[in-house]
Design goal:
This protein is mainly beta. The protein has a single domain, classed as endopeptidase domain like (from Nostoc punctiforme) (endopeptidase fold (from Nostoc punctiforme)), CATH 3.90.1720. Helices cover about 10% and strands about 30% of the residues. The protein has 2 helices and 8 strands. It has helices at about 1-5, 25-35, and strands at about 20, 20-25, 55, 65-70, 80-90, 90-100, 105-110, 120-125. The longest helix is centred in the first third of the chain and has 11 residues, at about 25-35. The radius of gyration is 14 Å and the shape is globular. It starts with a helix and ends in a 10-residue tail after the last strand. The model has no long low-confidence stretch (mean pLDDT about 90). Keywords: Hydrolase, Protease, Thiol protease.
């Protein structure tokens, strides 16, 4: 799944985008998970129902969903998300489609070396992807 997702690094950010022509964060996540037969809501606002499956950050695995608030930290609702790509002691990376001018489009971010920890809401344990041949 991560190999599939990383093929889209550099794809531009498009608000409401759901295709390789341009993704927003949830459009990218839905596109990747759908390729592996994992259903997920279209928008981060609808991730609220997924929070019941949250696990501690320390138990995160590659392929899990990491969810953040939007840029307003006072609103403790899902506003941004990504797919965890790497987990090692002291290292957690995730892939997402960012609207930030600094990292515009699909990019991989080192969680601990970013501003995302202050926006962290949850890690959602996702089912293992079903394998598909191409």
């Amino acid at each position: 799944m991560i190999k599939f997702a990383t093929k889209y690094i550099g794809t531009r950010y498009v608000w409401g985008g759901t295709t390789p022509k341009g993704f927003d964060c949830s459009g990218f996540i839905q596109y990747v998970y759908k390729n592996f037969n994992i259903a997920i809501p279209r928008t981060t606002a609808r991730y609220t129902g997924l929070l019941k499956n949250s696990i501690p950050l320390q138990k995160a695995k590659v392929g899990d969903l990491i969810v953040f608030t939007g840029t307003n930290l006072k609103i403790k609702k899902p506003g941004h998300a990504g797919i965890i790509t790497e987990v090692k002691p002291g290292l957690l990376k995730f892939i997402h489609s960012s609207s930030s001018k600094k990292h515009f489009g699909v990019t991989e971010t080192n969680y601990y070396k970013s501003g995302y920890p202050k926006r962290f809401l949850a890690v959602i344990q996702m089912p293992s992807p079903s394998k598909r041949e191409y």
